[in-house]
């Protein structure tokens, strides 16, 4: 494998409840067709709407691929925009999953912090994508919903020291097509990678400056 390539994992969820076709997985499959360019090694994974599956799958993704970025995508029946989630929450998981299960502790990581923020500047990503003329509305949120979306996001943030992202999409046709959502994910993830690159350059420059000035 090309060592200069960056590994990016994007997950979508399987069917649940009224979402017999989960818009998040449709969007992720459209993204896979579009790709993220030759410099990115993109892997897409469908995640079942089950707490215990998430608890085993998410750590294995980080261990197996050592990705630069993991972006989880979920559907929100209330959303009318593509929504960038800033943080994941540890407590408050009372909703039963597809196997009629919910954690006894009602939390993701026993003893973990209440909330973990992504290191990615979602406000900046939102502004840049919104200004790009994509034709898809993008917004930012601090509440991923205390169900499998939030549970997955927190777990991933905890494992990656914040190097994860979560994107909520509206159901297909309300108002966007699967292709629209795929194009939005492509633009968003490219901006996230760009933001990561800029932050790493700043850290590197700061480190060099401190070395030369000491």
Describe this structure in words.
InterPro entries: Peptidase_C15 (IPR000816), Peptidase_C15-like (IPR016125), Peptidase_C15-like_sf (IPR036440), PGPEP1_Cys_AS (IPR033694), PGPEP1_Glu_AS (IPR033693). It is an enzyme of class 3 (hydrolase). Helix 3 packs across helix 5. This protein has a single domain, classed as Aminopeptidase, CATH 3.40.630.20. It is built from five helices and eight strands, in the order βαβαββββαβαβα. Strand 1, helix 1 and strand 2 form a beta-alpha-beta unit. With 214 residues, the protein is of the alpha/beta class. The strands form two sheets. Strands 2-1-3-8-4-7 form a six-stranded mixed sheet, with helices on both faces. A two-stranded antiparallel sheet has the order 5-6. Helix content is 40%, strand content 20%.
Average pLDDT figure: 91
**Topology, number of strands:** 8
| Series of H and E elements | EHEHEEEEHEHEH
Figure out the total of helices: 5
């Amino acid at each position: 494998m090309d060592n200069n390539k960056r590994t990016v994992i994007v997950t979508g969820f399987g069917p649940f409840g009224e979402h017999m076709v989960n818009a998040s997985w449709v969007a992720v499959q459209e993204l896979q067709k579009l790709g993220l360019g030759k410099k990115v090694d993109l892997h897409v994974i469908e995640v079942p709407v089950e707490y215990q599956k998430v608890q085993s799958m998410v750590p294995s993704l980080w261990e197996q691929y050592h990705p630069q970025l993991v972006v989880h995508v979920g559907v929100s029946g209330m959303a009318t925009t593509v929504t960038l989630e800033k943080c994941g929450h540890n407590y408050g998981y009372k909703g039963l999953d597809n196997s009629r299960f919910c954690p006894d502790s009602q939390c993701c990581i026993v003893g973990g912090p209440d909330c973990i923020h992504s290191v990615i500047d979602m406000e900046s990503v939102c502004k840049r994508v919104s200004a790009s003329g994509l034709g898809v509305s993008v917004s930012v949120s601090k509440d991923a919903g205390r169900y499998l979306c939030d549970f997955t996001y927190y777990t991933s943030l905890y494992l990656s020291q914040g190097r994860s992202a979560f994107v909520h999409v509206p159901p297909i046709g309300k108002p966007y097509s699967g292709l629209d959502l795929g194009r939005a994910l492509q633009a968003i993830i490219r901006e996230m990678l760009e933001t990561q690159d800029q932050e790493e350059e700043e850290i590197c420059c700061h480190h060099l400056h401190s070395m030369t000035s000491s």
